[in-house]
Write a structure and sequence with these properties.
- By secondary structure, the chain is of the alpha/beta class.
- The protein has ten helices and six strands; from the N terminus they run βαααααβαβαβαβαβα.
- A six-stranded parallel β-sheet has the order 3-2-1-4-5-6, sandwiched between helices.
- It starts with 8 loop residues before the first strand and ends in a 9-residue tail after the last helix.
Length: 226
């Protein structure tokens, strides 16, 4: 895919791409696991659990603990995480501008997250990004058979948005997300921020260090949106 005119759809991951949530989520997770007798630091939480479905986080934590977590542990974690979001969550710098510039040239935009739709709606609402996406342009791995690194959620999003995978671009910050997009036959832009740039490149992404770099990478010039 070369010029912007060949582009039908840009699919944004949410956490770590549109909203600065990964540190917040993983700080809450580290505290919740440590309280259950599994001492966990923020770097350890990000290394071992970031990007997983909630049930996979529970399964991995229970395997490390050697016992089941309390029945209400996940509910308490989600509650504490959402409360932390309401206090601290911010948009990724340049996110709103990038989405607006892409939409302005007639390219569709959507969000496809590993998280539940409720979390995506909350995150976008708290950061002022919710109105940049149509109500039916939010997708979750919980709505498809398999989450990332499988391609299901991206293929589902493209089909729902009437776009061909080969004419779609995914913006991701995780290796599992990049792997999923590549498996879906989509071009991938890897937003590095504090992610492992080399790992994103190895997985198949072309990297950007700022979301301001995304529209030009896609062939969208500043003057093309005026």
């Amino acid at each position: 895919m070369s010029p912007a005119r060949d582009l039908q759809l840009v699919i944004f991951d949410c956490d770590g791409v549109l909203v600065d949530s990964e540190v917040i989520s993983n700080e809450v997770l580290a505290r919740a696991l440590s309280a259950e007798g599994l001492p966990t630091t923020l770097p350890q939480a990000r290394r071992d659990f970031q990007g997983l479905l909630l049930e996979d986080i529970v399964a991995r934590a229970e395997a490390k603990l050697g016992r089941e977590l309390p029945d209400d542990w996940l509910e308490r974690y989600e509650r504490d995480r959402d409360e932390a979001f309401r206090r601290e969550l911010r948009p990724i710098p340049g996110a709103a501008g990038a989405v607006k510039r892409i939409s302005a040239v007639g390219v569709a935009v959507c969000v496809a997250s590993q998280a539940k739709l409720e979390k995506t709606r909350l995150s976008l609402g708290l950061t002022g990004l919710r109105d940049l996406f149509h109500a039916q342009a939010l997708f979750s791995s919980y709505s498809v058979p398999r989450g990332k690194p499988h391609p299901d959620v991206f293929l589902h999003a493209a089909a729902a948005m009437n776009a061909k995978p080969s004419r779609s671009v995914v913006v991701e910050d995780s290796v599992s997300g990049v792997t999923a997009a590549v498996s879906a036959g989509m071009r991938v832009s890897g937003y590095v921020a504090d992610s492992d740039e080399a790992a994103l490149r190895r997985a198949g992404a072309e990297v950007v260090r700022s979301l301001d770099e995304l529209p030009p990478l896609l062939g969208i010039r500043v003057d093309s949106t005026r």
